[in-house]
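TL;DR need structure tokens for one chain.
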Amino acid sequence: MSEVLRDIIKRNRAGHAVAIPSVCSSQADVILASLLRAQTLDRAVVVEATSNQVNQDGGYTGMRPSDFMAFVHGIAKDAGVDRERIQFGGDHLGPQAWRSESPDSAMAKAHELVAGYVQAGFTKIHLDCSEGCADEPAQLDDEITSRRSADLARTCANMADDLMFVVGTEVPPPGGARTDESGDIAPTSPDAAKATLAIHMDKFGDIAPQIGGLVVQPGVEFSPMQIHHLPITKDPKLIQAIADWPSVCLEAHSTDYQHPQVFPRLAELGFAFQKVGPALTLAYRQALYSLDIVRNFSSEGAGDLPHVLEAAMLDDPRYWQGHYQGDADQLKLQRHFGLADRIRYYWPVGAVKFAVQQLFDDLPSQIPVPILWQVFSQPVLERAEELTGTQAQRLVRAQIQLALDPYFFDPETEGT
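>> reply
TL;DR here they are.
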């Protein structure tokens, strides 16, 4: 299955502005909408799980890697989506989930983690050992990071041949992402990126040819209430970092909320792998909140979904505390509308799941169009008409797909 990804890399490195979107989400509606769009466009798509979402302990989703694989395949089967177009990736696989423990303990669990992903059938494996464990610096140097990543890679390679490793990390330095004098996010320097890749190649040894991607910062980022857009006319020249390795591409994280023209531009700059996650779950939240408003006008139900989510977030604040700052009003605003979309952690909560189902049960089978005009854009309404399912389901999926569409930019716009 990694041959699909290697073909994308080959074409990109040949000078064509091609890339594949990596949907990093465990939310069922996001996955469904993404797979349906890939099927309609006859394109491949990567579906990724992160180490805190899905691990041997269940993660915050309650799923192990094999559970996640079955979950996505089940969605695809029910929707009539070809299984072959789905590539599975593991994101930030390493000791992060256990970094409060000693390095030996955390790395032992990381080996169990990657073994579970490979055994389940994941083939795109992003190894990230950049964060320190107990009594270590918050960010580790390339020497330690590459050595630990190589150890994990060998565990993976001993279990399967058809693997592609992605190395490096875009995790900002302690204190958060830094802006330059123009207010832009500073991209990784080509020399630093080249050094990171070189040391990983050295540590990986005989399995170095299986490295297919390098994560670097091209100059895109978002904070809870602000988007840092790619300076589209600038070239950070990061393609120089992979010049000596023609089978390697660049991978961009935190590309959510960028202008549509950014994605083909990133492909021109060598970023054949483009990650998206919070922008899609935010679109899901946006659609549900819009339907909650509609409920007040078109049925006898009383809209209370935001109140249920607020109670869930206050009852268990661990997923948003430390990510948002400000007074009580500012925190509430960020909890519900922040671009980091930490609210995505609360959709699996029992009371929230019940409230979402109640919302769909309360809505009429056909909502009058003048009411929909108040809360949904015309492109969303038009896309919903192309989809199947109930009217409410179609609106949710359309909202998500419109957020994903820029990643499926027209391959006819490839470079020379």
